[in-house]
Amino acid sequence: MTYSGRVTVGGPADVHELKDLMITKIAVGPMDNNAYVLRCRATDEQLLIDAANDADTLLGTIGDDGLASVVTTHRHPDHWQALAAVVEATGARTYAGREDAEGIPVPTDVLVDDGDVIRVGQVELTARHLVGHTPGSIVLIYDDPHGHPHVFTGDCLFPGGVGNTHNDPKAFASLMHDVETKIFDVLPDETWVYPGHGNDTTLGAERPHLPEWRARGW
């Protein structure tokens, strides 16, 4: 089956099978959050990006092989509703951006800074700190040695624009700057984007619209 990245709450997960990594995307909760289970194919170690909601659904997706770690992309409550239950059930280590950790009511084991590497088995993910949607939002980049990069953007980048900056021009300018300099300027058009809500996209599909986003201010 070809991966599409289109999932719905209550529907099946979609699985993106790469040579070294399996990415399972599932939608959960009343705000249609995306959660991603990453499995290293060499070791079967697993990492969850955003224990957003529906702990039973997430634990069912994780399965019997356990969970090594959970990364919370940012402090907004819709991205951590199931975090306490998932950690209690699995004993997973928790990660979050340093500036957002205090807003997440589950203790963060590892505070993440810009450029830090988070590992799942033999696979390395590079964290980038993007300021604007929240002070401590992080995205994770997997630079696939066998293909193009993959980036998990939380609520910082979606098809059609950057994340909500609540009509704050300073926050919008900051987020646009960070998205452009840390994502668009360094990654190719083929880069696959996995957002915190909704469908996936690629940087190539979004790149022509950057001037439009800047002009409209959101």
UniProtKB/TrEMBL annotation:
Domain Metallo-beta-lactamase: 32-197
InterPro entries named among the record's database cross-references: MBL_Glyoxalase_II, Metallo-B-lactamas, RibonucZ/Hydroxyglut_hydro
Signal peptide: none
Domain of life: Bacteria
Pfam families linked: Lactamase_B
CDD domains: metallo-hydrolase-like_MBL-fold
Xref: PANTHER family: CONSERVED PROTEIN, HYDROXYACYLGLUTATHIONE HYDROLASE GLOC
Name under which the protein is recorded: MBL fold metallo-hydrolase
Native source species: Streptomyces thermocarboxydovorans
